[in-house]
Known about the structure:
By secondary structure, the chain is mainly α. The chain has three domains: 8-76, Alpha-Beta Complex (Flavocytochrome C3, Chain A, domain 1); 87-151, no CATH class; 170-263, Fumarate reductase/succinate dehydrogenase flavoprotein-like, C-terminal domain (Methane Monooxygenase Hydroxylase, Chain G, domain 1). The protein is built from nine helices and four strands, in the order H-E-H-H-E-E-E-H-H-H-H-H-H. It has helices spanning 20-34, 48-54, 56-64, 120-140, 145-151, 170-186, 193-216, 221-242, 260-263; strands at residues 39-41, 74-76, 87-88, 107-108. A two-stranded antiparallel sheet has the order 1-2. It has a two-stranded parallel sheet with strand order 3-4. Helix 2 crosses helix 3 (56-64), helix 6 packs antiparallel against helix 7 and helix 7 packs antiparallel against helix 8. The mean pLDDT is 88.
Amino acid sequence: GNDYIEFMDSYDSQGSLAPRDIVARAIDRELKKSGQPCVYLDIRQHSEEFLRKRFPNIFATCEQFGCNMATDPIPVVPAAHYCCGGVRVDIDGVTCVENLYAIGEVACTGLHGANRLASNSLLEAMVMAHNAVEHTRGVFNDTDSRHIENDARPTPDWSKGDATDPDELIVIYHNWDEIRRFMWDYVGIFRTTKRLQRAKTRIRNIRKEIEHFYWDFLITADLIELRNMASVAEMIIDSALARQESIGLHYNADYPVADGNISEKETILRRPGFHRELY
Protein backbone atom coordinates (compact mmCIF):
# COMPACT_ATOMS: atom_id res chain seq x y z
CA GLY A 1 0.00 0.00 0.00
CA ASN A 2 0.97 3.67 -0.25
CA ASP A 3 1.33 3.92 3.54
CA TYR A 4 4.42 1.68 3.60
CA ILE A 5 7.92 3.04 2.96
CA GLU A 6 10.90 0.84 2.12
CA PHE A 7 13.85 1.66 4.41
CA MET A 8 16.57 -0.96 3.95
CA ASP A 9 18.18 0.82 0.99
CA SER A 10 19.33 3.55 3.38
CA TYR A 11 21.15 1.00 5.56
CA ASP A 12 22.84 -1.31 3.05
CA SER A 13 23.55 -1.45 -0.67
CA GLN A 14 21.86 -4.88 -0.83
CA GLY A 15 18.64 -3.42 0.54
CA SER A 16 16.25 -6.03 1.86
CA LEU A 17 18.71 -8.79 0.88
CA ALA A 18 21.34 -7.58 3.36
CA PRO A 19 22.67 -10.07 5.96
CA ARG A 20 20.26 -10.75 8.80
CA ASP A 21 22.31 -8.92 11.46
CA ILE A 22 22.26 -5.72 9.39
CA VAL A 23 18.52 -6.10 8.76
CA ALA A 24 17.85 -6.75 12.46
CA ARG A 25 19.76 -3.64 13.55
CA ALA A 26 18.01 -1.56 10.88
CA ILE A 27 14.59 -2.75 12.05
CA ASP A 28 15.54 -2.02 15.65
CA ARG A 29 16.54 1.55 14.76
CA GLU A 30 13.38 2.13 12.71
CA LEU A 31 11.16 0.92 15.56
CA LYS A 32 12.95 3.16 18.05
CA LYS A 33 12.56 6.15 15.72
CA SER A 34 8.90 5.55 14.89
CA GLY A 35 7.64 4.09 18.16
CA GLN A 36 5.74 1.50 16.15
CA PRO A 37 5.41 -2.09 17.41
CA CYS A 38 6.67 -3.65 14.16
CA VAL A 39 7.75 -3.18 10.56
CA TYR A 40 6.25 -5.16 7.68
CA LEU A 41 7.53 -7.71 5.19
CA ASP A 42 5.73 -7.30 1.87
CA ILE A 43 5.84 -10.33 -0.46
CA ARG A 44 2.44 -9.83 -2.03
CA GLN A 45 4.02 -10.01 -5.49
CA HIS A 46 3.86 -13.80 -5.16
CA SER A 47 0.72 -15.88 -5.60
CA GLU A 48 -0.92 -17.69 -2.70
CA GLU A 49 -0.23 -21.02 -4.42
CA PHE A 50 3.50 -20.26 -4.59
CA LEU A 51 3.70 -19.06 -0.98
CA ARG A 52 1.80 -22.04 0.41
CA LYS A 53 4.13 -24.41 -1.41
CA ARG A 54 7.37 -22.54 -0.67
CA PHE A 55 6.65 -21.54 2.96
CA PRO A 56 3.98 -23.96 4.25
CA ASN A 57 4.79 -23.61 7.97
CA ILE A 58 5.15 -19.83 7.89
CA PHE A 59 1.96 -19.50 5.85
CA ALA A 60 0.04 -21.65 8.33
CA THR A 61 1.39 -19.69 11.30
CA CYS A 62 0.45 -16.36 9.73
CA GLU A 63 -3.05 -17.68 9.04
CA GLN A 64 -3.45 -18.53 12.73
CA PHE A 65 -3.02 -14.82 13.45
CA GLY A 66 -5.35 -13.69 10.69
CA CYS A 67 -2.62 -12.76 8.21
CA ASN A 68 -2.62 -14.00 4.61
CA MET A 69 0.90 -13.68 3.21
CA ALA A 70 -0.45 -13.32 -0.32
CA THR A 71 -2.68 -10.35 0.49
CA ASP A 72 -1.38 -8.83 3.75
CA PRO A 73 2.00 -7.40 4.76
CA ILE A 74 3.57 -9.55 7.50
CA PRO A 75 4.36 -7.88 10.87
CA VAL A 76 8.07 -8.33 11.69
CA VAL A 77 10.23 -7.59 14.74
CA PRO A 78 13.78 -8.71 15.61
CA ALA A 79 13.98 -11.77 17.85
CA ALA A 80 16.65 -13.82 19.60
CA HIS A 81 18.14 -16.38 17.23
CA TYR A 82 20.73 -19.11 17.68
CA CYS A 83 24.20 -18.58 19.10
CA CYS A 84 27.39 -18.58 17.05
CA GLY A 85 29.47 -19.64 20.04
CA GLY A 86 29.14 -22.51 22.46
CA VAL A 87 31.09 -25.53 23.71
CA ARG A 88 34.26 -25.74 21.62
CA VAL A 89 34.46 -28.94 19.57
CA ASP A 90 36.37 -30.37 16.63
CA ILE A 91 34.88 -31.64 13.36
CA ASP A 92 33.68 -34.82 15.12
CA GLY A 93 31.95 -33.07 18.01
CA VAL A 94 34.74 -33.99 20.45
CA THR A 95 35.17 -31.61 23.41
CA CYS A 96 38.10 -31.03 25.80
CA VAL A 97 36.40 -33.31 28.34
CA GLU A 98 37.21 -36.95 27.71
CA ASN A 99 34.30 -38.96 26.23
CA LEU A 100 32.05 -35.89 26.13
CA TYR A 101 30.60 -34.85 22.77
CA ALA A 102 28.64 -31.70 21.90
CA ILE A 103 26.61 -31.18 18.73
CA GLY A 104 23.83 -28.89 17.59
CA GLU A 105 23.20 -25.41 18.93
CA VAL A 106 25.15 -26.06 22.14
CA ALA A 107 28.38 -26.54 20.18
CA CYS A 108 30.83 -24.10 18.61
CA THR A 109 31.97 -25.92 15.47
CA GLY A 110 33.29 -22.92 13.55
CA LEU A 111 30.79 -23.48 10.74
CA HIS A 112 29.18 -20.08 11.25
CA GLY A 113 32.09 -17.74 11.82
CA ALA A 114 30.89 -14.45 13.31
CA ASN A 115 27.47 -14.62 11.67
CA ARG A 116 24.69 -17.03 10.80
CA LEU A 117 23.87 -18.04 7.24
CA ALA A 118 20.53 -19.50 6.19
CA SER A 119 20.34 -23.32 6.43
CA ASN A 120 23.68 -23.67 8.23
CA SER A 121 21.66 -25.32 11.00
CA LEU A 122 21.40 -28.34 8.67
CA LEU A 123 25.17 -28.74 8.90
CA GLU A 124 24.98 -28.61 12.69
CA ALA A 125 22.09 -31.05 12.96
CA MET A 126 22.94 -33.55 10.22
CA VAL A 127 26.65 -33.46 9.35
CA MET A 128 28.00 -32.95 12.86
CA ALA A 129 25.65 -35.59 14.27
CA HIS A 130 26.84 -38.06 11.62
CA ASN A 131 30.49 -37.26 12.34
CA ALA A 132 29.99 -37.69 16.08
CA VAL A 133 28.30 -41.08 15.66
CA GLU A 134 31.05 -42.34 13.36
CA HIS A 135 33.72 -41.13 15.78
CA THR A 136 32.10 -42.86 18.77
CA ARG A 137 32.01 -46.12 16.83
CA GLY A 138 35.76 -45.97 16.48
CA VAL A 139 36.29 -45.08 20.13
CA PHE A 140 33.75 -47.30 21.86
CA ASN A 141 33.33 -50.25 19.49
CA ASP A 142 35.14 -52.64 21.84
CA THR A 143 33.22 -51.58 24.92
CA ASP A 144 31.00 -54.25 26.41
CA SER A 145 28.17 -52.82 28.49
CA ARG A 146 28.32 -55.83 30.82
CA HIS A 147 31.87 -54.89 31.81
CA ILE A 148 30.70 -51.38 32.55
CA GLU A 149 27.90 -52.71 34.74
CA ASN A 150 30.19 -55.12 36.60
CA ASP A 151 32.93 -52.55 37.19
CA ALA A 152 30.67 -49.61 37.94
CA ARG A 153 30.92 -48.10 41.38
CA PRO A 154 27.63 -47.80 43.26
CA THR A 155 26.22 -44.31 43.34
CA PRO A 156 25.93 -43.08 46.93
CA ASP A 157 22.55 -41.97 48.19
CA TRP A 158 21.89 -38.26 47.78
CA SER A 159 22.44 -36.32 50.98
CA LYS A 160 20.59 -33.05 51.29
CA GLY A 161 22.59 -32.02 54.37
CA ASP A 162 21.00 -29.01 56.05
CA ALA A 163 19.19 -27.85 52.90
CA THR A 164 15.48 -27.13 53.22
CA ASP A 165 12.61 -26.68 50.80
CA PRO A 166 12.79 -23.24 49.17
CA ASP A 167 10.36 -20.85 50.81
CA GLU A 168 10.15 -18.35 47.94
CA LEU A 169 10.24 -19.97 44.50
CA ILE A 170 9.16 -16.64 43.03
CA VAL A 171 12.78 -15.47 43.48
CA ILE A 172 13.93 -18.10 40.98
CA TYR A 173 11.32 -17.15 38.40
CA HIS A 174 11.92 -13.43 38.91
CA ASN A 175 15.66 -13.83 38.30
CA TRP A 176 14.95 -16.05 35.31
CA ASP A 177 12.77 -13.35 33.76
CA GLU A 178 15.18 -10.54 34.65
CA ILE A 179 18.13 -12.26 32.95
CA ARG A 180 16.10 -12.67 29.78
CA ARG A 181 15.01 -9.04 29.80
CA PHE A 182 18.36 -7.34 30.48
CA MET A 183 20.20 -9.68 28.10
CA TRP A 184 17.79 -8.58 25.37
CA ASP A 185 17.91 -4.89 26.32
CA TYR A 186 21.64 -4.56 27.08
CA VAL A 187 23.36 -7.47 25.31
CA GLY A 188 21.09 -7.82 22.29
CA ILE A 189 21.51 -6.87 18.65
CA PHE A 190 22.65 -3.30 19.43
CA ARG A 191 25.28 -3.08 22.17
CA THR A 192 27.21 -0.28 23.85
CA THR A 193 29.94 -0.54 26.45
CA LYS A 194 27.73 1.20 29.00
CA ARG A 195 24.88 -1.26 28.41
CA LEU A 196 27.25 -4.20 28.73
CA GLN A 197 28.63 -2.83 32.00
CA ARG A 198 25.10 -2.46 33.35
CA ALA A 199 24.39 -6.06 32.41
CA LYS A 200 27.61 -7.14 34.14
CA THR A 201 26.53 -5.43 37.36
CA ARG A 202 23.11 -7.08 37.26
CA ILE A 203 24.38 -10.57 36.51
CA ARG A 204 26.87 -10.39 39.39
CA ASN A 205 24.09 -9.57 41.84
CA ILE A 206 21.81 -12.25 40.45
CA ARG A 207 24.55 -14.89 40.65
CA LYS A 208 25.04 -14.07 44.34
CA GLU A 209 21.31 -14.65 44.93
CA ILE A 210 21.45 -17.90 42.97
CA GLU A 211 24.43 -19.22 44.96
CA HIS A 212 22.58 -18.47 48.20
CA PHE A 213 19.60 -20.46 46.93
CA TYR A 214 21.80 -23.24 45.55
CA TRP A 215 23.55 -24.01 48.83
CA ASP A 216 20.77 -23.29 51.33
CA PHE A 217 17.77 -24.93 49.67
CA LEU A 218 16.93 -28.23 48.01
CA ILE A 219 17.96 -28.28 44.36
CA THR A 220 15.26 -28.18 41.69
CA ALA A 221 15.48 -28.47 37.91
CA ASP A 222 14.47 -24.81 37.54
CA LEU A 223 17.23 -23.71 39.93
CA ILE A 224 19.85 -25.68 37.99
CA GLU A 225 18.67 -24.19 34.71
CA LEU A 226 18.71 -20.68 36.20
CA ARG A 227 22.25 -21.23 37.51
CA ASN A 228 23.43 -22.42 34.10
CA MET A 229 21.62 -19.56 32.37
CA ALA A 230 23.36 -17.02 34.59
CA SER A 231 26.77 -18.61 33.94
CA VAL A 232 26.30 -18.48 30.17
CA ALA A 233 24.97 -14.91 30.36
CA GLU A 234 28.04 -13.76 32.29
CA MET A 235 30.38 -15.44 29.80
CA ILE A 236 28.62 -13.70 26.91
CA ILE A 237 28.81 -10.32 28.67
CA ASP A 238 32.51 -10.72 29.53
CA SER A 239 33.35 -11.81 25.99
CA ALA A 240 31.40 -8.89 24.49
CA LEU A 241 33.18 -6.39 26.75
CA ALA A 242 36.57 -7.84 25.84
CA ARG A 243 35.96 -7.65 22.06
CA GLN A 244 36.33 -3.94 21.37
CA GLU A 245 35.20 -4.06 17.75
CA SER A 246 32.09 -4.84 15.72
CA ILE A 247 32.06 -7.99 13.62
CA GLY A 248 29.21 -10.20 12.44
CA LEU A 249 26.47 -10.51 15.04
CA HIS A 250 28.52 -8.66 17.66
CA TYR A 251 27.85 -4.95 17.20
CA ASN A 252 29.09 -2.41 19.73
CA ALA A 253 28.17 1.16 18.80
CA ASP A 254 31.27 2.41 20.63
CA TYR A 255 33.47 0.30 18.31
CA PRO A 256 31.47 0.25 15.04
CA VAL A 257 34.11 -1.27 12.74
CA ALA A 258 36.13 -4.48 12.71
CA ASP A 259 39.69 -4.48 14.00
CA GLY A 260 41.88 -6.92 12.08
CA ASN A 261 44.17 -7.42 15.05
CA ILE A 262 41.20 -8.62 17.11
CA SER A 263 39.03 -10.32 14.49
CA GLU A 264 41.56 -13.04 13.76
CA LYS A 265 41.41 -14.29 17.34
CA GLU A 266 38.63 -16.39 18.82
CA THR A 267 37.44 -15.74 22.35
CA ILE A 268 38.05 -18.98 24.26
CA LEU A 269 37.07 -19.33 27.92
CA ARG A 270 38.33 -22.07 30.25
CA ARG A 271 37.89 -22.90 33.89
CA PRO A 272 40.90 -21.83 35.98
CA GLY A 273 43.43 -24.66 36.07
CA PHE A 274 41.92 -26.47 33.07
CA HIS A 275 44.53 -26.52 30.31
CA ARG A 276 43.67 -29.50 28.12
CA GLU A 277 43.81 -28.48 24.46
CA LEU A 278 41.27 -29.62 21.90
CA TYR A 279 43.47 -29.13 18.83
